[in-house]
Amino acid sequence: MTGNAGIHVLSDKQWAELEPLIDEVRPHCKVSHENLRQTIEAILWRHQNGAKWRAIPGELGPWWKAAQTFIRWSRLGVWERLLDLVQEGRVALGMAFLDGTNLRAHQKAAGAKKRGANSEERDRREALGRSRGGYGTKACVIADGRGRAAAFTLAPGQAHELPMAPDLLDELPDVPGWVVGDRGYASDAFRERIWTIGARPAIPPKRTDAPVACPSWIYNNRHLVENLWARLKEWRAVATRYEKTARSFLGVLCFAATLDWLRS
User: Fold this and answer.
1) How many CB atoms lie within 10 A of CB 157?
2) Spans of biased composition, class Basic and acidic residues (predicted)?
3) What is the spatial distance between Cα 14 and Cα 8, in angstroms, rounded to a whole number?
4) Which of 70, 111, 130, 208 has the CA that lies 20 to 30 A from 5?
């Protein structure tokens, strides 16, 4: 692919795979979206580079059109639907991996509309909070057996990832053979939940807990979800949160994960 003046963002092959997916999930209106490919490439360029919207090269069209499209589609859940669609019929569930990471928030991520809430409630709603790593967001993912993201959830940076795990399990299209997580997911209640749905847990105990079964030949595959985070964080807008709202930041994660699926 090229923009109008030769800026390479997506190849023709990538766009040929992405275009029908976007056409299926995007909101349709009476006036067709002029040069949709250019707008998507502008959105992609901005998030991969972590730049301001106004810094988008003019060859990729008006910056405001890309910004408006991305924010509107985030509010409508388009990016989440795009991620759901790209993985239809392709999810490998011999294993499922749970993992969370703290993502530092840029100072520009603060300042979402108050909407009648106090600062603590706003931070909780917008998934922003202070942890040892500073002001940021806790992002948790559930990945399939090949290390591809199936779904995400967000919380303030100081949140523990274990409470988010049951909802992520519910996002899978079927029951996995194994659910693999690190010690952050060590909980008898959560292991029981995994057994109840028909899967087997591979979660090592905390050092103060009684020993539990955690086969190394399963657990050693956890590097696949760590590699997933490494790939996603190649996008500067994933490695550092610039978005003011949780909805928009979730959109960035889902868009990055969608392109990761297309490369797999």
Assistant:
1) 23
2) 117-129
3) 12
4) 70
Residue 179 phi/psi, 5° resolution? Answer: -115, 120
User: To the nearest whole number, what is the mean pLDDT of the chain?
Assistant: 90
- Per residue in 47-56, pLDDT (tens digit) is 999 999 999 9
Cα 173 to chain centroid distance, Å, stands at 17
- For residue 44, give the amino acid letter: L
Cβ-count burial 110-129 (b if 16+ within 10 Å, e if not): eebeeeeeeeeebbeebbbb
83 with 258: CB under 8 angstroms? yes
Among residues 20, 91, 32, the alpha carbon closest in space to that of 257 is found at 91
Does pLDDT of 241 surpass 60? yes
The percent of residues above 70 in pLDDT, for the chain, comes to 89
